[in-house]
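Tip: read the tokens left to right.
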């Protein structure tokens, strides 16, 4: 039995995509958006503009282009890079619905949302995401993204029953497609779990570990499963994933443990056995080495904190 590590990871992070609003603009304009501090899905539905960020070459955005921004920088959207930008806050503060309006005309339409994550999910994704993933409308792999964008625009405009849920589901599919496009791209990726998922030699080993994390996997066993020598497999895995194979397995077990402790009521002794540890004390020691607290303490604190609030700044909602 094998598994799907990307689905596993996104499910573990409880990743949800929420489309928040958009911007209709006309004429000549330039708008400065603050740093969103969250992963953003953004797309140009109509028209074109430039995305400007300090210290980088302006990025041209055309109709049908979709972006994933890692949320770590402020930026400007403009019809002309030489224009002096205005602050986005007054524009979005005055809107009466999900769409803000600026300038004269409606030749430009831009929609956006964010990816909501649980707890340390932002750090786990920031470790593997570049600042911008840009899927251009003309690329071969953009066909599915374009269809999702068209359906998303239709749902946002039609105000049909269930439209908000449909828009969020479409946005989440778009998020997955953007990650797939990034994995499939020819550009070099930083070492990490996302790169490993896309590596044809390493990915089968990941699927085995995700499918049966409690198994006492041995390095030689994983190497044989992917048709490599023990040494070659270990070197390739670490260069691609940034971590040794069995260290990756231990880390994945800890992520599963964190989720089980937050969301479930399984006794800690049973959880330890389900993750391949021979005793509760062995599991507790491993868990504390990674998280800094005991499993019991982690569960108590997590339950007291409750679900994280999903506050969304109205300015960054459409960015």
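Filled-in amino acids:
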């Amino acid at each position: 039995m094998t598994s799907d590590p990307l689905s596993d990871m996104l499910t573990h992070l409880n990743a949800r995509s929420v489309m928040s609003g958009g911007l209709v603009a006309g004429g000549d304009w330039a708008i400065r958006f603050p740093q969103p501090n969250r992963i953003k899905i953004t797309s140009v539905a109509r028209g074109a503009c430039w995305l400007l960020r300090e210290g980088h070459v302006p990025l041209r955005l055309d109709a049908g282009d979709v972006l994933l921004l890692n949320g770590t920088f402020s930026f400007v959207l403009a019809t002309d890079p030489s224009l002096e930008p205005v602050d986005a806050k007054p524009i979005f503060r005055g809107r009466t619905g999900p769409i803000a309006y600026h300038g004269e005309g409606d030749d430009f339409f831009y929609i956006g949302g964010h990816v909501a994550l649980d707890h340390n999910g932002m750090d786990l994704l920031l470790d593997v995401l570049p600042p911008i993933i840009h899927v251009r409308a003309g690329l071969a792999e953009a066909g599915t993204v374009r269809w999702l964008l068209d359906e998303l625009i239709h749902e946002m405009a039609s105000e049909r029953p269930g439209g908000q849920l449909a828009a969020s589901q479409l946005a989440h599919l778009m998020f997955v497609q953007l990650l797939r496009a990034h994995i499939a791209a020819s550009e070099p990726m930083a070492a990490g779990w996302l790169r490993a998922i896309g590596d044809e030699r390493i990915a089968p080993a990941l699927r085995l570990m995700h499918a049966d994390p409690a198994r006492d996997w041995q390095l030689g066993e994983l190497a044989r499963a992917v048709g490599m020598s023990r040494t070659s497999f270990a070197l390739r895995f670490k260069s691609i994933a940034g971590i040794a194979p069995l260290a990756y397995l231990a880390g994945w077990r800890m992520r599963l443990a964190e989720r089980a402790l937050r969301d479930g009521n399984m006794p800690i002794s049973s959880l330890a056995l389900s993750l391949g540890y021979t005793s509760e004390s062995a599991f507790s020691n491993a868990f504390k080495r990674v998280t800094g607290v005991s499993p019991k303490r982690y569960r108590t604190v997590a339950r007291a904190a409750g679900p994280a609030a999903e506050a969304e700044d109205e300015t960054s909602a459409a960015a």
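Residues 163-184 form the longest helix (22 residues). The chain has two domains: 5-188, 194-305.
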